[in-house]
Write a structure and sequence with these properties.
single chain; alpha/beta; seven-stranded mixed sheet; five-stranded mixed sheet; 12 strands; 43% helix; globular; binds nicotinamide-adenine-dinucleotide
Length: 438
């Protein structure tokens, strides 16, 4: 019987190349298991043939690369990177690059699959991919990170490209990392801004891309709150993770939606103030100290306490697997909006369904980022710039329409929002696959 916990990942040494990683330990549930579980339920509802199911379920291509770099002190350090292309039936593969010690093939597979479903849910012309390096970037200087990014780009150069596979930022990568990738790729292929998205505006990035995932999360929350009769101006909201996605989510909720964010956290811990945490105060504190911990006027809490706080809305915006079989029954929020990728295991999903806590799933809720990445890619290909107002307006249209599409699927199949979104996505990918001819 499977253990009801998310797998504790085997760490890959940052200084020693590992043998090929085991993608699972016997008896443990991995991030990829969780995605496959949801896929199987959706495929059964759609009555997909076994042959088609087999073709769509698993990744098209998986690349593992060794990344030797010379560290600032002259040492040779060899790291391991991955790029997994899950499916390109609806368009070029698309997905972020993650730098984190826990990165392994299982996680990248799961995340690449989520990208296939995400791009299909919001109906943008991309497939799904993901990449990453098993590294703790906090231990690296800027020069070391640049060298690592350049060698990774060289090693995956053979499978990426503006009409092949387009990387973007994810955990611990940002516009600077995308600039290095774009520059490295362009050295061989000529000026190619469309090879990555999430670039700085000065290098062909799109207005509104940096905040796009957070903005999409806020729109998802607003649309869901209409269905579940929650007044977002009177809600208390806890946000786990205060990086790109979590911080923009908190800012937009406070500044534009008039909501009260009562707790925020990062890898070092969290802070809680039932009267509300002002975004500007939190940002100033992070700029001074590198963390939200220690924010004046707020109580220190742990990341697990944040997840179990008495609040109306919980927004996990850090890493995957945060809500699982061992803590889900202690969650008190009335609504969960998944800003992170894969924050909820299926045991947790079952507990939330039993407790009637709706979960707005990652493959819809955090799709704002890839949607504006699509706008960036389209602008790069057309060599034409959109202004911020246009980007925000187009994002709003796509997020609102996609929410309605997900809810139609929920009603038609009488399923949770997650399974409704999977059914919607899988149906679109299956139709594209059949139309292209196998
Ligand atoms: P980020 O690196 O900018 O921020 C991550 C945040 O999580 C940081 O505040 C970090 O301190 C915190 N964190 C890390 N480990 C933690 C832990 N163990 N417990 C609690 N907090 C922890 O990354 P991001 O781009 O904001 O991505 C956050 C999540 O959103 C990820 O799951 C990512 O896959 C997903 N996502 C990102 C985008 C995007 O456009 N960046 C798009 C869609 C989904």
């Amino acid at each position: 019987m499977k253990r009801k916990t998310l797998k504790k990942k085997v760490l890959v040494s940052a200084s020693k190349p590992s043998a090929i990683q085991p993608v699972r330990s016997v008896g443990q549930l991995t991030a990829y298991d969780v995605v496959l579980h949801n896929f199987d339920i959706a495929a059964a509802k759609l009555q997909l043939s076994d042959e088609l199911k087999q073709l769509i379920k698993t990744p098209d291509r998986e690349l593992r690369v060794e990344l030797p770099i010379i560290m600032d002190d002259g040492r040779l350090n060899t790291l391991i990177g991955y790029r997994v292309q899950h499916n390109n039936a609806r368009g070029p593969n698309k997905g972020g690059i993650r730098y984190h010690p826990d990165v392994d093939l299982d996680e990248i597979r799961a995340l690449s699959s989520l990208m296939t479903w995400k791009t299909a849910v919001v109906d943008i012309p991309f497939g799904g991919a993901k990449g990453g390096i098993a590294v703790d970037p906090r231990q690296f200087s800027t020069g070391e990170l640049e060298r690592l990014t350049r060698v990774f780009t060289q090693k995956i150069d053979c499978i990426i490209g503006p009409s092949e596979d387009i990387p973007a930022p994810d955990v611990n990568t940002n516009a600077q990392v995308m600039s290095w990738m774009m520059d490295q790729y362009s050295r061989r292929h000529g000026h190619s801004p469309a090879v990555v998205t999430g670039k700085p505006v000065e290098l062909g990035g799109s207005a509104g891309r940096e905040e796009a995932t957070g903005r999409g999360v806020c729109i998802a929350l607003r649309e869901a709150s209409k269905v579940f009769k929650i007044d977002i101006r009177k809600t208390s909201i806890a946000v786990q993770g205060f990086g790109n996605v979590g911080s923009h989510t908190a800012r937009i909720l406070e500044e534009e939606f008039g909501s009260k964010v009562v707790a925020v956290s990062d890898v070092k811990g969290g802070v809680y103030n039932p009267r509300g945490i002002r975004f500007k105060d939190a940002m100033e504190h992070v700029a001074e100290t590198g963390s939200v911990v220690g924010l004046k006027g707020a109580a220190k809490i742990s990341n697990s306490e944040l997840l179990e706080l008495k609040c109306d809305v919980l927004i996990p915006a850090s890493l995957g697997g945060q809500l699982h079989g061992r803590n889900a029954d202690r969650v008190k929020a009335k609504l969960i909006v998944e800003a992170a990728n894969g924050p909820t295991t299926y045991e947790a999903d079952e507990l939330f369904a039993a407790k009637k806590i709706p979960v707005v799933p990652d493959i819809y809720a955090n799709a704002g980022g890839v949607t504006v990445s699509y706008f960036e890619w389209a602008q790069n290909l057309q060599q034409f710039r959109w202004d911020y107002t246009r980007v925000v307006g187009e994002l709003e249209k796509i997020m609102v329409k996609s929410f309605a599409d997900v809810m139609k699927s929920v009603e038609k199949y009488n399923v949770t929002m997650r399974i409704g979104a999977y059914i919607l996505a899988l149906d679109r990918v299956a139709k594209a696959t059949k139309l292209r001819g196998i």
